[in-house]
Fold these 2 entries.
Entry 1:
Amino acid sequence: MNIIELSGVTKTYGSVVAVDNLSLKVPKGSIYGFIGPNGSGKTTSIRMIMKIIYPDRGKLLINGQEHDSKRLRDVGYLPEDRGLYKKMKLGELLHFHGELNQGKDLKKWIDYWLKRLDLMEYKDKKVETLSKGMKQKLQFIATILHQPKLIILDEPFSGLDPVNADLLKDVILELQKKGATIIFSTHDMSMAEKMCDYIFMIYQGKKVLDGTLTHIQDQYGNDTIQIQTEAGASALNGIAGIEKVNDFGKLQEVRVSSGADPQDILIELLKLTRITRFEIAKPSLNDIFIRIASPERKEAHHE
Amino acid sequence: MNKIFTLFKREYRAAVRTKSFIISLLLVPIMMGGGFAAVIIMENKQDTEDKNFVVVDHSGLMEEPIGASLERRNQTEILDPETGEQVNSAFKVEFVTPGTDVKAQQRELSDRVKSTELHAFMEIGPDILHPTKDSESYLRYYSEHAFGDDVRYWFRNIINDQLRVMRVSELNLEAEQTADLFHWLEVDGMGLVTVDKKTGEQQEAKKSNELQSFLVPYVITLLMFMLVMMSAVPLLTSVMEEKSEKIAEVLLGSITPFQFMMGKVLGGIGVSLTTAAIYVSAAIFTLNYMGHESLIPYDVLPWFFVYTVLFIIMVGSGMASLGATANDSKDAQSLTFPGIIPVILPLFIMVPVIQDPSGPLATTMSLIPPFTPTMMMIRLATPVTVPMWQPIVGLIGVILFTIFTVWIGARVFRTAILIQGQKPSIGNLIKYAFKN
């Protein structure tokens, strides 16, 4: 059962096509990652799902229901740009958002989540006294306080330190276990790889990737080799069959040209230096992202 | 509706709990009342210092009558008849012979006025008894503030009375025949007679009261102006801030733009009704306490509340939608003025409308919906009877116009609230309002 279904959805702003003929199905109970470069149409897609803006064309079903102007119930939305009333106290602010979203047992849940995200001691303080990361956590609580079944988070990890990012990740997984469907957009590819059941990538308004991580990686095959040698990146110069080298200093990630055999590369490399690691792998999500959205690709796209 | 109410509660609390609300609640009546109190105090506290005058009498006729009136005045008229206490200034008049160099004399006397030795000086023309076309029949009063200085009327009355006496005596009439020659009648302004609905008895017409005719419509209009200024106008900046601080998008995940706008407008109404309730009950209590209950216009109070609420919805939805189009405080500033024209304009034409509440200007303006709330209230608050159909037609007009502003405001609001960086030009406003 899909909680969200988009088919042929298009949205234009003047002459700019922000989202072009987008079709997408989000299964209930899944974590769906939205990735894509800045300005590619992620936020527009999310806003259309939230009914904040309306598509020019196409069909959008949420819980099997057609789009109308009523607000969605049981949906929690954390927009990309955070906005909180600065002069309100944390407790009051959460109560206000909980009431707007028609939540139940608000007092109990406010205390539960403030404790869970280490903000209980600030309950009676004004929002303006919080640090950026704390505000982010507060806004997250406001999003999930009414126990929504569908949670849409636009870049929930941006601006969080690793400890808090980890805490938020745990909470998101906990909510999924309780039955919520979660859509989140992110620029953190490793987080998307580790957390998402499905990944959707939008680029220049068009869907370019959609499916499980394995499914996406399979499309690109085993064309990546992680190499560690005594000579470092310089050993790779001039070896046939290498399309691109991504140098991480201690480790080099090599993309094999189509039709080339990794064994030939290994043989060539053995002649030049001592090898400590040679691992044939699937491309990482980060690598796939860069392949799609790199400047060369963009130029090719325009030609 | 629940969501509008939730937002209304937040807006209301956020406004009412601020220090600035409490301060303005107290300051406005203090300032307004303070102005009236100052006038009353100043009127009661008369200047009792002696005032010196010089009279240059070219006619040679006035020294004696002015001297006699002066004596009468200084001995009796400046004293309180009950307490015998001096309540007005005593006048001292010095008569000087007209100089040969008139200009030099005027200069010398002007200097004495400037140095505050004299309050003023008078010049009486030589031909005042029988003025002809080319004769020098003038009365000139020279002082620092001659226009606002009522002492010149004291001289005018004495001199004219004396001239009449002299002209009559030239006709050789008996004193008894001339006793009422100068009796001057005033016209009393009266209200209309009314019939008591319960007893059927005719009530005496009351003398028309300046306070009732002017003060009541004046205060009611100012109160309405103040309520709109404190509730509807700040919505522009408040929405602009919510947009620029990205609170708007967070809220729009939970509520529709219409609910958002109406929640804010209702918050404004709540704030102004609280203020109005406090002021109106304080005014009723004070006027009752002071024995001026006749000044309380009970019959127009329901109209006042209905018109004020509609006016706030009308201006408030306009302001909120303009606020949604603004990107920063500079935009907000430039949008405020066009937004408050319906609030400000009636203040400029308030006085002529109070003076002639049934005239064509008052009637026409009170039937143009954006101006109806204030203009109709002014007319209803004056003692003049406004034909019953007019406030009703005005009200229908205001209701329809308010529905229109809310509708168009909501359309602009829902589009503009998410658009960043576009200038709030008239072209854009029309585009937001009429394009999907």
Note: Chain A touches chain B through 28 residues (CB under 8 Å).
Entry 2:
Amino acid sequence: MELVFIITLLIITALFSILLRHRALIEGLAVAASFVTLVGAIIIARSVAAVGIYTSSIFFTVDALGAIILLIIGFLCFATTIYSVRYFREESAKQIVGFTRVKQYFVLLNLFVAAMVLATVASSPIFAWIAIEATTLSTAFLISFYHKPSSIEGAWKYLIINSVGLLLGFLGTLLYFTAVGVDGAAGFVSWQTLLANASSLDPEIAKIAFVFVLIGYGTKIGLAPMHTWLPDAHGKAPVPVSALLSGVLLNVALFTLLRFKVVTDASADPSFTAGLLISFGVFSIVISALIMLNATNYKRLIAYSSVENMGVLLIGFGFGGIGVFASTLHLMYNALIKSSLFMMAGIIFLKYSSTKIAKVYGALKVLPVTSILFFVAFLAITGLPPFGVFMTKMLILSSAITAYPYLTSIALLFMTLLFVGFLKHVAAMVFGKKPDDIPVGEVSVWLIAPPMVLLFLALILSFYLPPILSSLVNAVVLHY
Amino acid sequence: MDISILQFFAGLIFLSLIFLNLTKKNYLAAMVFGIQSFAVMMIFLSSYLETRNLYVLLLVLLTLVIKVILAPMFFIRLIEKHQLSFSVSTYLNMPLTLIVIAMLTFLAHSQRLLPLTNIIPLHQGILAIALSGIFISLFMIINRKEAISQIISILSLENSIVVFAIFAGLEQFPGLQIGIIFDIFVWIIISTIFVTMIYEQFGSNIVTTMNKLKD
């Protein structure tokens, strides 16, 4: 019931926003809808933690990992909506965007969140595919939001690459249905049905299907070498959208891929999927580290960090066992910290009016609170203690080093390189003499509060997992 | 419907893909896509005649309206609006394009991909043709530099996958198929809006003219 309510509410909010003529009403409605989404996500997560699976109807089921993703959607959607309200007010004050654009933003934002919720809770792989395709459609105009040549180029690249990727994912998805012997209008095939029939799936078909699904959903996840759309889209989209793309959408696509991994492992030798995931994971780390060394744009820099972290997650999930435990935690930390980083990048952009690293210096003097938080978030995401990312990266690498010593060593080497590259750019931005023409002072407390809360949440979760989350993580380890 | 008629429609889709790869005129490409979609619709119609399921009939009608009528109409309007009747921009010339198409067709018929083409042994030939269609559509997306051609290529890829699914016996719950076609409809609208936006911003629909993301 809660699920249907959340999805309906988000869609109604989007439709209602089209009719409204008062900005405050549109903003208020969006904040209220995102708050209800958060509350609904918590209720569903509690239910999954208690019962193991949440079923609303034949069309919707939520398992432990789905509940965690739903919680991430809830928290990040609420934080980014609050942030968006203030962010676009600042942009309106600078005459960057007008009322129509803001209205368009909140309409598309609600549809985007609804599509992500649908993709997470869909009980059928085809239904999930439709929802993930819907996320592409709803975000294309969010990426081209500023209507500049570069943003249109980024959005077009995003639309074409992701559409092709998702069509390949669709073909892979269909191939899994050979196990169930689908007959025309026979019936609705759920994830559970696929898993139950996995033993009758031809292992060769399962392997080919997984390759298609990996390429398809891997494109959406931003795995190298299919990542090329990601830095462009994240770099050109409005900051709150980048935060949601990076913090939520990539995880939603990863979640879908992992569900196929479980089905494939039940049919073919699990070392097949593990090898592929680990190889793609390491390659993503290598590519992102090399590019980050010479990055010139700080939004793209953070975007490449997403490619790296998706690679880390893939290694953990590929290896299994303790790797899955660490990856599940890493997924949460990455979502919280990455969104926080993007939001702080937005504050820096509002002050410096540029996303070029070379044009941002002395931020510590101009934006003291934001800069400190930005630097802390950088340390957190690159895996320095006391943040949980340190522990999760260490666990993932230590679990993989026995079976894949060379690949793990390469990953470790490039993670170190990535830290150096990231540090070089962040230090250049934060420290040094401030520009004379930029006034000192934070932009707004409403812009600092959401990323600060997310960062604080990541820190708390690094030391303490609430019982609900703990039982969800344990359930994920057992199933994936 | 007789299997030989279905084979004819699968063959028609394959031929349309070869034509789409070779044609230099956008207008013709839009028309041929309409014919290709008509063949897909006829294959759906045969499914309806077998099952008499009203949802499948709805699917036939939606395919007719969205893919056979509306999509080519959108493309032709765009072509006329921006005077884009010719599209000669490809990375490979015609002989090389033909060689690649031949190689991809050979690949789809190879032993290596037998697990895919042998899902229903009776349909092995058609499945190999449908798989060739998937590969050729993918190649077309890469080879074409023009935005409308890329859109038609992606829609052709979707058509080829649908044909493969039908002959492999992997047709989905009709409600979901309607969801997919609705998604495709929204995709067509959004992509055509983007073509206009690209033309307005870059003065051309050749995607290689977009080079503002080099920072």
Note: Residues 2-479 of chain A form one domain.
